[in-house]
Amino acid sequence: MTDMQILLAPLGNVPEGKSSASLAVQRADYVEQAAQGKAVIVKDELAKADDSVSTDLAMVESQIDDLANSEGNSFNLQNVINVWFDRQEQKYAVGEIARRAGVQLNIDSAATYGTIPDKIVQMFINSAETKATGMAKLEVAKALDQATGVAGSISKDDDVKAAEIEEKATQILKSWSENASAIDFLFKRLFTKVLNRVVSYQTRLGNVGNDLAQKSVMLDRVSASLRARRDMVKKDLLQTCVNGLALESIIADARVELKRLEKELKNAVGADRGPINELVKDQQTFLQILIKRLIDLKAFAVKEIGLYSIIGTIHASVAVIRADVEFTRTNLIAALGLQLGLVCDIVSALRIAKASQDVRHAEANASGAVGVAADALQKAANSALLDVQTTMRSLEATIAAASRGIQNTRDNMDKVEAMQIETEARLGQLVADLGNA
């Protein structure tokens, strides 16, 4: 499988919802390891993405510096077309370059040559799309916060806390050990109280899981937006390359014309030199404008190539977050819900253990009277009680792990948000620097 397939795959299977101590511990271990494993994978993937974006930005900055120092000669636009585009697009480029190279430019019209049309600019900076994707992330984060809150409430609630239930049950058994009817009544009341709390939390977890299932679909909108922006960048990259290659042809013609005028100026004498000298200066200015624009276009092509890669990296990061959200809403919440169900079993099991122990004591006394050893029966009673205590300890481990896993998912979303903001800020600064060059 690819790295992404491994990332998106579930981490193991949730153990079945049975009440034995071994399965309870197994379930607690599963949640702990799965949450930690998923957190490590996501953290590593996002760290690699962050490094990749930084590398791409540094490369863009370096290449733009090289372009400025070499007057554009260090970057070949034709190579970009040959590598990035298919045969049909290459064929289109050949015809379009020839057509645009035939355009007659002057000092005034050269100012707008190769600039992005206003309509395309609006598509790139579509604030409505930015708002929609941002709101989608906020909605998912809000649902994750609710999941974190439920898990946090469970961990703090004494009515479902294993240690507290064990203590209450122990007090009942200690204080009413000789009154079977009182023990039965008090255990039923304890069971009902615990059951109500458990059902309430299980319902809330179910609602949060369903809400996350709906909200995580919003992350598809973010992915779709990033794909659309990436496609726009690639389409505009072709236009940038075509404009640049056509401009190279126009510059070559302008150089020829400048040489002709310089030769004519050299041969002119007297008053004839004045008008020709002005033509030479105008042609030199015109050529400087064209060369500067060619450097701008090549720098913009470099920037678009970097931007294409960066958007792809962030798009992959959103996929990582989507996998993390899906894992949270299914595996973690399911395991926590199953483990909560054991709390009710704990109360019942404690009651059974006590009753079983009483029976075994009575049997041991009776057996002892006729000379039969009672060690095996006593061991069985102690084992039953130990089994229940092990189950209770596993519950708190499950709650803690699930809560950490949910919070990790929320933190990871913040990480992608910060990555996008930083990238956009640095790219914006590159644009500003280019415009001031």
At a glance:
The chain is mostly helical and 437 residues long.
Feature tags:
437 residues, 86% helix, single chain, mainly alpha
Layout of secondary structure:
Blueprint: H1 3-8, H2 21-70, H3 77-84, H4 87-101, H5 118-124, H6 127-156, H7 162-175, H8 180-216, H9 218-267, H10 273-369, H11 375-436
Helix pairs in contact: 2-10, 2-11, 3-9, 4-9, 6-8, 6-9, 6-11, 7-8, 7-10, 8-10, 9-10, 10-11
What does this structure look like?
This protein is mainly alpha-helical and 437 residues long. Helix content is 86%, strand content 0%. It has 11 helices and no strands. It has helices at 3-8, 21-70, 77-84, 87-101, 118-124, 127-156, 162-175, 180-216, 218-267, 273-369, 375-436. Helix 3 packs antiparallel against helix 9, helix 6 packs antiparallel against helix 8 (180-216) and helix 8 (180-216) runs antiparallel to helix 10 (273-369). The longest helix has 97 residues, at 273-369. The protein is rod-shaped and about 140 Å long. The two termini are 47 Å apart. Residues 1-12 have low confidence and may be disordered.
Radius of gyration: 36 Å
Strand content: under 5%
Largest sheet features: none
Give the overall average pLDDT.
77
Order of helices and strands: HHHHHHHHHHH
DSSP strand tally: 0
Determine the fraction of residues in helical runs and give it as a percent range: over 70%
User: What is the first-to-last residue Cα distance?
Assistant: 47 Å
Structural class: mainly alpha
| Count, helices | 11
Which runs of at least 5 residues are low in confidence (pLDDT < 50)?
A: 1-12
Backbone shape: rod-shaped
